[in-house]
Specification:
Strand content of chain B: over 45%
Order of helices and strands of chain A: EEEEEEEEEE
Number of helices of chain A: 0
Largest sheet of chain A: 6 strands, mixed
Radius of gyration of chain A: 13 Å
Largest interface: A-B, 28 and 24 residues
Number of helices of chain B: 0
Distance between the termini of chain A: 35 Å
Structural class of chain B: mainly beta
Low-confidence stretches of chain A: none
Helix content of chain A: under 10%
Structural class of chain A: mainly beta
Mean pLDDT of chain A: 96
Strand content of chain A: over 45%
Shape of chain A: globular
Order of helices and strands of chain B: EEEEEEEEEEE
Distance between the termini of chain B: 40 Å
Shape of chain B: globular
Oligomer: heterodimer
């Protein structure tokens, strides 16, 4: 089973700042099989990034993804108030298609 | 607008069974792999099961193998999750989601889940 470790667990930033979230895999998953999701309280997750770096439909360009192999990054260039949420990475390189434990992005 | 609507959740005692359904509309259901993801109260997301568009391929997380069965009826545009031998630790909100990617006859190549239902709550308790 591929384990995904996200860091930091909690990130405290202010609107307008840049956020950098990390997702590290216990073994290589290539670059096509890593996705990022955003989840707000009481809501279903929303796909932000797929194949490590492709933005999903309707996702603002302040969200970007990068990485390959075992190290992946989600960057939010300038935080908007609506971006404060929990973010998860997920791998599809091999079953089970595991999620990371999540990074909570909170307002400082 | 694409819609996924889960139903069938509820309260069930340990050892009991439940069948979740997910009705799909406004997309060609049979063309897409579908997935169940769950979230225990206050916890993170956990992938449960995925089924190919044809239904020929299924994948399950280890903790539900032998207890849960994912299936689909493409003529009715509905996804199912039959949950047997339920445990307290299966308590969660269960989401169905549509997968990005494709499946061959032997494997699925998926990249993410781009549409989600709002979830149905399952509580396993005596």
């Amino acid at each position: 089973e591929i384990v995904l470790r996200q860091s930091p667990g909690t990130l405290s930033l202010s609107p307008g700042e840049r956020a950098t979230l990390s997702c590290r895999a216990s073994q290589s998953i290539g670059s096509s099989y890593l996705a990022w999701y955003q989840q707000k309280p009481g809501q279903a997750p929303r796909l932000l990034i797929y194949s490590a770096s492709s933005r999903a439909t309707g996702i603002p360009d302040r969200f970007s993804g990068s990485g390959s192999g075992t190290d992946f990054t989600l960057t939010i260039s300038r935080l908007e108030p609506e971006d404060f949420a929990v973010y998860y990475c997920q791998q599809y390189g091999s079953s089970p298609y595991t999620f990371g434990q999540g990074t909570k992005l909170e307002i400082k | 607008e694409l819609q996924l609507l889960e139903s069938g959740g509820g309260l069930v005692p340990p050892g009991g069974s439940l069948r979740l359904s997910c009705g799909a509309s406004k997309f060609t259901f049979s063309n897409y792999a579908m997935t169940w993801v769950r979230q225990a109260p206050g916890k993170g997301l956990e992938w449960v099961s995925t089924i190919s568009g044809s239904g020929a391929l299924t994948y399950d997380t280890d903790s539900v193998k032998g207890r849960f069965i994912i299936s689909r009826d493409n003529s009715k545009k509905t996804l199912f999750l039959q949950m047997n031998s339920l445990r307290v630790e299966d308590t969660a909100v269960y989401y169905c989601a549509k997968a990005l990617g494709y499946c061959t006859s032997t494997n699925c190549h998926l990249w993410g889940m781009d549409d989600w239902g709002q979830g149905t709550a399952v509580t396993v308790s005596s």
